[in-house]
C-alpha cells in the first residue's frame, strides 16, 4: 500500500470516529447549559414559575403606639397582581361569639391579636391568614430602608404641606415620622385609619419597586419583637409574592370600610363585607356571607369625608 493511500485511509477512519463524538458533545452542551436569560433569572433568585393561588397572604397588622393603636388588613396576591391595604379604626365594632359586639381594641386587650383577627374574620366573613402585633416604633425601625413615601392629602382634614398651585396637597414622610404626624394632625378615628392605610400602601409599594426583598427583610428584623403566627415559611412567602408583584408592576390600593363613628365606636354599614372582599380580592370564607342585620351596630350607607 502506498504512503498516500495509507494516509487517506487513516484520515477517513479518524474522521469517522471524531465527527460523531463532537456532535454528541455539542448536543449534550445544548441540552444542559441554560440560556443567558435563564441563567440571569436563576442567579437573581427570580422564580421562573408562574404564581398560583398559594402565592397569597392576608395579614392583620396591628401597630401599638403610645396614644393610638392602628389596625390594617394587608393583602398580597401574586396571581392577581394585588397589593391592598384596608385601614380599620381601633373602635371598630366586631361580632362576639358570646353575643353582641366588642371593639377591635377590646378584643386585642382581652385576648391578644389572634382573637382580634378571629373576630374580624367572622364579622367580615373573609379569611385572615396571619396576624402581627408590634410596637409602632419597632415597626418604623424595621421599615427604615423603605425610604420616604409621598401621600396625597386631598380629602383629609390636615394642614396642607408642600402645596403648589394647581396640584394636590402632598406630604412626604419617613417611617419614623408617621406616628408623630398622625398625632399632630389629630384626625377622627375613621380618617386616621384611612390615612394610615394610604401611608402604609405607599411605603410597601415604594419598597417593592426599590427591592422586593425589603418587606421580608423588615419582618426578619422585627421577628424577635413581634407577637405573630408568622414563621420563616410565611416570611419566605412574602418575599416570593413581592418578587412577583415587582415583576408585574402592581399598583397599591387602599381604603377603609364604610361605616360611621357613633357613641365612641365605628359601626360598619351593611356593605362593609362586600367592600372588604372587593378591595382585598379574597373569597368569602366558608361560602357564607354575613346577614346585614348580623353586623354589630349596622349603620346606613356612609358618605365619603
Please write out the topology.
Layout: H1 3-32, H2 36-44, E1 56-64, E2 69-77, E3 82-88, E4 93-95, E5 101-103, H3 104-111, H4 113-124, E6 130-135, H5 136-142, E7 149-152, E8 170-173, H6 178-185, H7 189-210, H8 214-222, E9 226-228, H9 232-248, E10 252-256, E11 259-262, E12 265-268, H10 272-280
Parallel strand pairs: 1-6, 3-10
Antiparallel strand pairs: 1-2, 2-3, 4-5, 6-9, 7-8, 11-12
Helix pairs in contact: 3-4, 8-9
What are the defining features of this structure?
single chain; 305 residues; Nucleotidyltransferase, domain 5; 20% strand
Compute the number of helices.
10
Helix content: 40-55%
Regions with little confidence, pLDDT below 50 for 5+ residues? 30-44, 161-165, 300-305
Distance between the termini: 105 Å
The H-and-E topology, N to C, reads as: HHEEEEEHHEHEEHHHEHEEEH
| Shape type | globular
Look at the structure and give the CATH class of the domain at 56-146 and 208-294.
Alpha Beta
> What is CATH's topology name of the domain at 56-146 and 208-294?
Nucleotidyltransferase, domain 5
Which second-level CATH architecture of the domain at 56-146 and 208-294 applies? 2-Layer Sandwich
Q: How many beta-strand segments?
A: 12
Structure description:
This protein is of the alpha+beta class. The protein has a domain at 56-146 and 208-294: Nucleotidyltransferase, domain 5 (2-Layer Sandwich). It is 43% helix and 20% strand. It has 10 helices and 12 strands. The strands form 4 sheets. A 6-stranded mixed beta sheet has the order 9-6-1-2-3-10, with helices on both faces. A hairpin with a 4-residue loop joins β1 (56-64) and β2. α3 runs antiparallel to α4. Residues 30-44, 161-165 and 300-305 have low confidence and may be disordered.
Amino acid at each position: 500500500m502506498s504512503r498516500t493511500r495509507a494516509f487517506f485511509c487513516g484520515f477517513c477512519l479518524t474522521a469517522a470516529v471524531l465527527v460523531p463524538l463532537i456532535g454528541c458533545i455539542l448536543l449534550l452542551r445544548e441540552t444542559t447549559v441554560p440560556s443567558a436569560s435563564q441563567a440571569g433569572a436563576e442567579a437573581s433568585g427570580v422564580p421562573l414559575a408562574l404564581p398560583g393561588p398559594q402565592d397569597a397572604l392576608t395579614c392583620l397588622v396591628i401597630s401599638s403606639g403610645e396614644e393610638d393603636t392602628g389596625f390594617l388588613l394587608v393583602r398580597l396576591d401574586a396571581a392577581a397582581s394585588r397589593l391592598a391595604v384596608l385601614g380599620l379604626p381601633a373602635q371598630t365594632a366586631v361580632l362576639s361569639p358570646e353575643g353582641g359586639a366588642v371593639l377591635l381594641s377590646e378584643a386585642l386587650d382581652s385576648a391578644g391579636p389572634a382573637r382580634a383577627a378571629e373576630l374580624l374574620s367572622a364579622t367580615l366573613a373573609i379569611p385572615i391568614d396571619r396576624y402581627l402585633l408590634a410596637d409602632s416604633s419597632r415597626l418604623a425601625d424595621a421599615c427604615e430602608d423603605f425610604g420616604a413615601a409621598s401621600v396625597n392629602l386631598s380629602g383629609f382634614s390636615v394642614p396642607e404641606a408642600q402645596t403648589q398651585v394647581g396640584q394636590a396637597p402632598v406630604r412626604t414622610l419617613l417611617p419614623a415620622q408617621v406616628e408623630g404626624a398622625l398625632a399632630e394632625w389629630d384626625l377622627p378615628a375613621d380618617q386616621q385609619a384611612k390615612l394610615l392605610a394610604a401611608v402604609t400602601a405607599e411605603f410597601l409599594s415604594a419598597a417593592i419597586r426599590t427591592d422586593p426583598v425589603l418587606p421580608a427583610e423588615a419582618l426578619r428584623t422585627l421577628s424577635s419583637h413581634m407577637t405573630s403566627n408568622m414563621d420563616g415559611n410565611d416570611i419566605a412567602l412574602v418575599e416570593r409574592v413581592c418578587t412577583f408583584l415587582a415583576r408585574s408592576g402592581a399598583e397599591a390600593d387602599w381604603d377603609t370600610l364604610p361605616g360611621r363613628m357613633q357613641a365612641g365606636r365605628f359601626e360598619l354599614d351593611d356593605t362593609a363585607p362586600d367592600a372588604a372582599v372587593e378591595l382585598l380580592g379574597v373569597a368569602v370564607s366558608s361560602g357564607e356571607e354575613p346577614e346585614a342585620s348580623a353586623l354589630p351596630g349596622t349603620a346606613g350607607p356612609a358618605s365619603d369625608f
